[in-house]
Amino acid sequence: MRAVIMDAPGQITVGERQDPRIIEPTDAVIRLTATCICGSDLWPYRGVEPANHTPMGHEYVGVVEEVGAEVTTVKPGDFVVGSFVISCGRCEICRSGYPSRCVHAVFVAGNIGTQSEKARIPHADGTLVAAPGQPDADLVPSLLAASDVLGTGWFAADAAEAGPGKTVAVVGDGAVGLMGVLAAKQLGAERIIAMSRHADRQALAREYGATDIVTERGDEGAARIKELTDGLGAHSVIEAVGTEESFLQAIRSTRPGGHIGFVGVAHEGVTLPMDEVFFAQVHLHGGPAPVRRYLPELIQLIWDRKINPGTVFDLTLPLDQAAEGYLAMHERRATKVMLTL
Amino acid sequence: MRAVIMDAPGQITVGERQDPRIIEPTDAVIRLTATCICGSDLWPYRGVEPANHTPMGHEYVGVVEEVGAEVTTVKPGDFVVGSFVISCGRCEICRSGYPSRCVHAVFVAGNIGTQSEKARIPHADGTLVAAPGQPDADLVPSLLAASDVLGTGWFAADAAEAGPGKTVAVVGDGAVGLMGVLAAKQLGAERIIAMSRHADRQALAREYGATDIVTERGDEGAARIKELTDGLGAHSVIEAVGTEESFLQAIRSTRPGGHIGFVGVAHEGVTLPMDEVFFAQVHLHGGPAPVRRYLPELIQLIWDRKINPGTVFDLTLPLDQAAEGYLAMHERRATKVMLTL
């Protein structure tokens, strides 16, 4: 089958990989309908993380081709959405709502790779969720978004306790931050402040429910959030970047007792000053999003056309042109690239 | 009046200060019954923080002598317990449960100083809570503990979401950590693991409700917690030290999705690696404890003799011997020193 391989940082090829097959009785093999390129794929692309003939991709929707003997919740022919972390669904951590830290967790990225025609998904019952039927073509981008970027933004908004009566600030205007805006709106937030200095992303943020835009960054951005909130700071802040600067911006934008949901992947070497965290007296929760927890709800919202997160994809290419997709995101010509099969 | 002054790091004198008087109509003047020395008083004592003729002390119980015209909830003759942070009780932050970050907050330490015969307490209604009557002498140490060390341990246990069915681990066997054990027990925790290598503190931890003692520290300590919790880590972890090592020990002892309540004061220069915080996927909440939120409940528990936190004081001295009290805590001959008047 064809699959995207990162031979080395910045070197994308669409080559041949062996077709996947059922190995464990809990496996499913799916034929991909669509996949995409994640902001986190740019880390190895830019050499910040290693890449050595790495199978790429961790977001996916497709049709089940075959299942192992023990799979009970999906069957051949089902249209499914999967999480970017393999999870068993049965361990104590999964049952407590953290499938992203399942005791059997495997990151799809780098291990399975779903920028490909097919994929073997272990622990299919705990990882995949079937849509109510075969989706109309226009729903596919939104269902694909649920696989990571929407699920991650949703987790961030949930972790930040966005909800009725709350003012939510969003640090980061990438795809995840924008999905955080959409999630905050759905969760009933009263006021949603998107922090962005890019006109196109500001427009998308407004489409998703942002009521205010703040263009300042860093301490100036935090000061602006305080101005907008009677000097107190936002109740809920979504951190969707992952640098020390963005983290401090989030902390300084949050009122005492408020909540920060952080989903920007922090890399080695990023540190946080604990005295500032201590005296800020905020709640912090985040990490790799437990997307599987939210998938049934997100799929239904999309199916019922109550949300339309698929508009976050601003470039669609066939899988064979993956290299151009990576380059477009690297050069910031695209926010999020969908790859079709 | 007599009062404890830290002339310079390590130099304690009991000297004369002007008697306090009502300045604002929201003030109260109290005559101290007892006060104490906090672990955090050792920071300036050891020169980690500055000290220059600093009025010391921030924990206090006493009898109201006089109140300003606008004070309505306490009156002369009332026996009161106060928080170590002055709070108005009326601002949005106070009403949301975070009086320690009141918009009018003033730290008693360094500004008011309650290692003294009397003290002026601003925002008396928002800071002080009257006991149901004049306490028996044996209740005074416990009521004094509520002023900070119990209230702080209680906040840590609450922030860590200690409760029925939960396994709670406590990092730090100082007075606050021990109070965290007591609080976890009261909140209904099923299993409480105290991390301590000192026999006397282990005994006190058991008295307060610890079911297990772990003597290992750092990564060995975290590994031991995992062994005791099916490899998953504790649901709730109290961090009551404030160093990078103790923080990492707490994070590594917590299961994914679990909660850390941190109350060990982190000093400038203490940093936390964000990649580890990210992938740990725990909840973090802490800071200077909003003691005033808990005071009514804690005073009642003490009054009804349901808890006896006063046993955390293992040395009692008259105020005039404060210097010996500081030295005993500095040399770890005492866990917590009460000063009587």
UniProtKB/TrEMBL annotation, chains A, B:
UniProt cross-references to InterPro entries, sorted A to Z: ADH-like_C (IPR013149), ADH-like_N (IPR013154), ADH_Zn_CS (IPR002328), ER (IPR020843), GroES-like_sf (IPR011032), NAD(P)-bd_dom_sf (IPR036291)
Swiss-Prot/TrEMBL keywords: Metal-binding, Oxidoreductase, Zinc
Domain spans labelled Enoyl reductase (ER): 7-339
Gene3D superfamilies to which the protein is assigned, alphabetical: Medium-chain alcohol dehydrogenases, catalytic domain, NAD(P)-binding Rossmann-like Domain
Tagged with keyword Transmembrane: no
Cofactor: Zn(2+)
Family of this protein: Belongs to the zinc-containing alcohol dehydrogenase family.
Name by which UniProt lists this protein: Zinc-dependent alcohol dehydrogenase family protein
